[in-house]
Amino acid sequence: MFRIASDRAEGIGAPSRRRRFGLSAKLLALTVGVVAAAEVAVLVPTIANYRIAWLSDRLAAARTAALVLDAAPQDRIPADLTHDLLASVGAKVIVVKKEDTRRLLAMSDMPPEADVHIDMRDGSLWSMVRDAAATLLAPNGRILRLVGDPPSGADFIEIVLSETPLRRAMLGFAATVLFTSLLVAVAAGILVYLSLNWLFVRPMRRLTERMSAFRENPEDASRIIVPSGRTDEIGTAEEALEELQRGLSQTLHQKSHLAALGLAVSKINHDLRNLLASAQLLSDRLAGLPDPTVQRFAPKLIAALDRAVAYCEQTLSYGRAQEPLPHRREVPLAQLFEEVRETLGLGTGSAIAWNVSVEEDAAADADPDQLFRVILNIARNALQALEARAPNDPARDQIVLSARRTPTGTQIEIADTGPGIPAARRAHLFEAFVSSARRGGTGLGLPIADELVRAHGGEIRLVEQATGTAFQILIPDQPGTPRHRRERLRA
Asked: N or C: which end of the chain has fewer CB within 10 A?
């Protein structure tokens, strides 16, 4: 009649591990147990109440017989009437006490001795339940002495009767109630089970099937759960699972993209290094020419080629391995900012202004090549953001670099007067392939800069401002260096 969930979830991606009891089976067992417990809790006091009602009926009949005793002359009650009165009550003896007089109506001159005494004028629920259980378990032939409220004007009424008819009536009543309760329990159990199965078990089974299917192939977007639109906790769980699966799928796509990029770069890395080596040979020959212009720019060209060769050797470091540990030393910041400006091609007459606010002897405790890459990546992003709104005006379009010492290190700030970063992209600035909004960009500049700064034990963060974009870089001094000790003593 019931459809019990199989140990193995049906559909795509069913888990291979078998479970002894599914959620539906546990729900059915719980429903049966709760309904059975409720029926027992109801059945026990119901039987106790039935016993009290049966005894009360006997007392009511005894009170009617007592009225006959009051109307008949003393000791002149016919035997047939006595028998009929006792039979109507179901008693062996009826006694009515009125003041100092006791009227006795009995079938024989020697009344039977009572085994159990019951006073119906006083009793609690616990005693009712206890006495009902004792009656059901008692042997046949036990005699009860029952005392109750008398007719008007009397002190009490007392009857002596056999408990066997009461026990049989209680067993019959219990069987009837139990059968009726079982029918009600089965109907209620079916309704409760079907309702809970529809409202909870089926949605939970759907959640587990979609999670299992997604686990087999997380990059397959068709395996992402589609929320049912419910407004309760299960609907919230479906929406949260969808968001989690989409985020994980996108992350895996990004990792796959990164792996493909690393594979492609690894294939061209060797040939590119050969080409750069040839360019180095040519630059060395140019450096030997006596032309003053050549002598002026040849060292810069050689330095740029040397840096390009080093970049090629470390191209695969992002995504496949960590960046090499920084080789830290004192890096003059004014000179470093000038190298970045020349690399970006921002000369004196450029349409984008390059403003630097730093002391001549300002220096940072960092790896010079890695810090150069950090500044270059951020400054290039600023330059591209400003170039996007050409024609440019140096009075409006500016890149501003500043640096200052702190008690624990160096703080560098790179700001621009561009359009700024949309709020929707700020939470993913340092994620690969996400932060770039420029057409054709890779989205690796800020993630690489963040990785290099963290390798120094520092931090890079976006600074909130009204217009443009500003990044703040904190490079702490390496512990144990003379500068670090001096700064700590000064602080």
From this structure: N
pLDDT digits (tens, 9 = 90+) for 125-167: 778 888 888 888 888 888 888 888 777 766 778 888 888 888 8
Contact 355, 401 (CB under 8 A): yes
Strand partners, 401: 356, 414
C-alpha torsion angle, residues 112, 116, 117, 123 (rounded to 10): -150
Q: Are 429 and 446 in contact (CB under 8 A)?
A: yes
Please report where in the chains the tokens 């770039």 appear, as a residue. Answer: 436
Residue 428 has pLDDT above 80, yes or no: no
R_g (Cα) of the chain, nearest Å: 48
* Secondary structure (DSSP) of 411-446: EEEEEE-SS---HHHHTTTTSTTTS--STT--S-HH
As beta bridge partners, residue 471 has 414, 462
Which has the closest alpha carbon to 249: 221, 272, 273? 221
Angle (CA) 219 222 227, round 5°: 115
First-to-last CA distance in the chain?
81
Write the Ramachandran bin of 433: left for phi over 0, alpha for psi from -120 to 50, otherwise beta. left
> Residue type for 471, please?
F
Measured distance CA(136)–CA(171) in Å, rounded: 7
DSSP state of 120: T
Nearest to 368 by CA among 412, 330, 319: 330
- pTM, entire model: 0.44
Q: Do 310 and 369 meet the contact criterion of CB atoms below 8 Å apart?
A: yes
CA distances, 81 to each of 69, 107, 220 (Å): 10, 11, 95
Cα–Cα distance for residue pair 69/63, rounded to 1 Å? 10
And the tokens for 378?
């951020």
Residue 407 · residue 418 · CB < 8 Å: no
Contact indicator for 114, 145 with CB cutoff of 8 Å = yes
Cα 54 to Cα 57, 93, 127, 357: the distances in Å are 5, 17, 16, 104
Q: Residue 95's beta-bridge partner residues?
A: 104, 158
Q: What is the pLDDT of residue 322?
A: 55
Closest to 62 (Cα-Cα) out of 37, 35, 33, 87? 87
Residue 476: strand pairing partners: 409
Q: What is the pLDDT of residues 255-276, one digit of tens each?
A: 777 777 666 666 666 566 666 6
210 token code pair = 């979609």
How does pLDDT run across 429-464, given as a tens digit for each residue?
A: 777 656 555 544 456 778 888 889 998 999 999 998
